[in-house]
Amino acid sequence: MRRNWITRETRACGGLVVTLAALVISCPLAEVSGHDGQAMTPEEKSEIRDQILEMFDHAYNSYMDYAYPADELMPLSCRGRVRGLEPNRGDVDDSLGKFSLTLIDTLDTLVLLNKLDEFEEAVKKIMRDVRLDNDIVVSVFETNIRVLGGLLGAHVMADVLKQRGQRMQWYRDELLHMAKELGYRLLPAFNTTSGLPYPRVNLRYGVVNPLSRTGTESDTCTACAGTLILEFAALSRMSGDTIFEEHARKAMDVLWEKRQRGSDLVGTVINIHNGDWVRRDSGVGAGIDSYYEYLMKAYILLGDKVYLERFNTHYSAIMKYISQPPLLLNVHMHNPTVNVRSWMDSLLAFFPGLQVLRGDLKPAIETHEMLYQVTKQHNFLPEAFTTEFRVHWGQHPLRPEFAESTYFLYKATGDPYYLKVGQSIVEKLNAHARVPCGFAAVQDVRTGTHEDRMDSFFLAEMFKYLYLLFSEKSQLPIDIDDYIFTTEAHLLPVSLSTTQPSCLTNGTEPPAHQDDLFSYSCPSAQTLFPNNPTFAKTIRDGYKYLTGVGRAQQASSVRGIELPLHDTGLEPVEFLKSMGISLTPLTELVSASQGSVPQDSQKGVFKLKLVAEVSQTPEHEEVVPLIVQLISPPFLGRTVLMAGPAKFGLDLTKQEHGVKGRIMKSVPYTACGPIENTVELQGHIALALRGDCMFAAKARRLQEAGAIGVIFIDHREGSSSAETPLFQMVGDGEPTDDITVPLVFLFSKEGATLTAALQEHHNVDVLLLPKERQLGKD
């Protein structure tokens, strides 16, 4: 077994000699025989590698043929997604800046996959077609990792090809100049008292300009502020302008200073002006994830020991409180022995890969195996899943984090088991996500329905990691060990640690903590695998049947009761579903057993059988309270109505600033027939009365009429949120992925307040958002 170092550089920094040693351990396949299956032959790996190239060509050519110069491809519609021309998707659209996002994000992937002609042509297109001064508000975080990172990674690749003397001889650092321009357009976001950046910036007008249409935000996520240092520092060191690294480092310093000193954990959302924590839940998934990643990788890329010491401090806290192998659970940063939720999000799938970089293989193998078992159960990782491995949020937008960790674990172990995992990813993408115009995100892993989106990270990251997984170093156009991956998998050279930009004294040295074997050195292969190539398998075996998939099935105890439900206008089936009761029509059960069903003579009576596995009880799902906040004069946010959510439609918990619109009553008010006032409803939030038909049917009609949201009002007189618990509206038993507008439910008393306001003032603007994000609540 041999160790393959990424690099080893030493430089002086203010008298301190820093030794940079980052690892990727690789093992020749001949040395390790897979006990979960035979080792792949070179021919088998080559076949899968060719398959990955064909898949990339299908996705990339679909974008270029049907979407370019738009930011993203809509693979079901076979056209480009242009912001402002398609229905607003909320925060998701903040990554779109009318700068050909997908092509910029894909540039260095083209080089890695040996598509050098396509790379050269793509660079020329970017130089010719892309403008960075658009009057558009974008996410600082997304624009940094996707566009700035993409330009820098492509510049590095162009420079490498040029130095070899065969290609890109015409190149004069144009991509670096574009990166520097974009860096300056992002800098206004740092105009805060704390040094933490605003979450959004207008590419043309910045933040404080009256024309910017942004700058009112007060909060940002930890990852949003802490995932800038790699790109900004690389830009500083490549361009010679230290301002970028200084601002990014300041943001990292603030996050470190604001950590909870007792637990050494950070929260998820922080106030950018005073540094107070807004959300104090702490984990390694969405909202925090890449902050930890960038601490570790900033040390690898820049050679600054401060970043490593901070990472080690946080990592000790993570392993003490958040890691509950094989799970990674969110806790309260001030009281870390308390779990704050019983589900995990898919973004944490990057963490085993980060643990590999640190050399902590055992928990990496455990968590990765848990994630693999979840993919076996659902084909893909759902956006969120419970501790019992049930789907919490069913979407899968073709995220690459699981493939990323698979690649790093294979590099660290050489175990062909991880090639089989990679092969399963390839097969499932082809079987369940491939469409004629590319690859489509999965709207719900339970039904397999598609969503009309192919995010740029699919081309930027997924194909990089899959191709590398099945490639030998000799088959790559560059020495991959000379580079570090950004969180968007862009390639930055670790030789940047030897350049001499700002090497500032840092006054936030971490407290002393107990170091382990790998705190300041590269992990030893002999320590990780002491003459025992089956090491990884012995760890995995304990989690092989974690989700029940693959285990011999035993007959489950099924208990049935006939349940007559009278249709009294209260939508009984929907009401029971909202309480978590699964219902199966009696006709389906009897027909399955070759029986017959007697016709019930009483109109409106449904005969259903309740099927329940005695060994499993439905997990209680917490209902996230929403609000309808009246924001137009004379209310100005002071009138706030408690509202219930829906299990379908736009997820308001993922929209940082909610959905704003003017309200308009539907005609008919129940929305159970053809909508008669479609002209008036266009671009407004519709009000509809509950009853006579299902919520989903109403939502579809109103969405088709042009409504941008729907507020359902209870038809039961006198009902109120003060007296009745909130519940989640559910669908009609059919797929609801076609419903994309936000939906909320008001009880009768709250609904009466809203309709009275509309009757008196005619033009009433409201904001739909989670209660915890209520405007002016402080």
UniProtKB/TrEMBL annotation:
Ranges where the PA domain occurs: 663-754
The encoding gene: si:ch211-282j22.3
Cofactors that this protein relies on: Ca(2+)
InterPro entries named in the record: 6hp_glycosidase-like_sf, EDEM1/2/3, EDEM3_PA, Glyco_hydro_47, PA_dom_sf, PA_domain, Seven-hairpin_glycosidases
GO cellular component: endoplasmic reticulum quality control compartment; membrane
CDD domains: PA_EDEM3_like
Protein name: alpha-1,2-Mannosidase
Signal peptide: 1-34
Annotated localization: Endoplasmic reticulum
Organism: Danio rerio (Zebrafish)
